Amino acid sequence: MLTVAPLVVLSLGLLQQASADPTESLPGVYDLTPENFDKHITGAKDAIVEFYAPWCGHCKSLTPEYKKLGEAVSSDARLKSRVVIAKVNADEHKSLGTRFGVGGFPTLKYFSRGKPVNEPIDYSGGRTKDAFLEYINNKLTEDNGFARVEILDTLARQFTSASDTSDLIKKAQELAGSLTDEAKINGDVYLKSMQKAASKGMDWFSTEKARLERLLESGNVNTNKISEIGRKLSVLTAFDKEE
């Protein structure tokens, strides 16, 4: 009778635990196809996308860590509001692999907010949940000023040290009114922030920033409000005295 050494059995068990089917649905991870790719990867948020093949051993090994990443991002209101985690079966959807220059599996691409969707950068960092999160958080830190408007940043710096803010508020109102599209939305946040601080005192900036951060950390925020909070937090950095 054939017997299998306990060490071999253990090794086989660990191997099975360390890999999984990359085609399975993962919590917090979008499965992208040519039909829905541009719906989810729009440039409005950062995104990391894995291009895989079902038969690829390295893709199978990556799946448990990618699952952990999806769970971590979907359970963090701040991250969920700013980053998309997704994967593509590029063996089945070859057009997407061709579109993004995928030459091997798994290939991971990082799509930065505000950049053309067809110009992602290659992710070459570690392939553990913690390595992914460190990379993502570094990218988001670099992009904390996503809602900043340069012409209003100058006023913001003057505002925090001004003894009379009425002229600055009037100027901000004029500038915000001259903006269009996304910049107009952001400009209105500058103006409302100045008006609030003028009535409540300059400490309002720090207390409001802390309040919004607590809201996000609580996880008890309506999904529709998360992006609005992120926008406000971004604009509030323009009023940091350290800047």
UniProtKB/TrEMBL annotation:
InterPro entries linked: ERp29_C, ERp29_C_sf, PDI, PDI_thioredoxin-like_dom, Thioredoxin-like_sf, Thioredoxin_CS, Thioredoxin_domain
UniProt keyword Repeat present: yes
Catalysis: reaction(s): Catalyzes the rearrangement of -S-S- bonds in proteins
Molecular-function annotations in GO: protein disulfide isomerase activity
A Pfam family: ERp29
Enzyme Commission number: 5.3.4.1
Secretion signal span: 1-20
Xref: PANTHER family: PROTEIN DISULFIDE-ISOMERASE C17H9.14C (PTHR45672:SF11), PROTEIN DISULFIDE-ISOMERASE C17H9.14C-RELATED (PTHR45672)
Family classification: Belongs to the protein disulfide isomerase family.
Name of the protein this chain belongs to: protein disulfide-isomerase
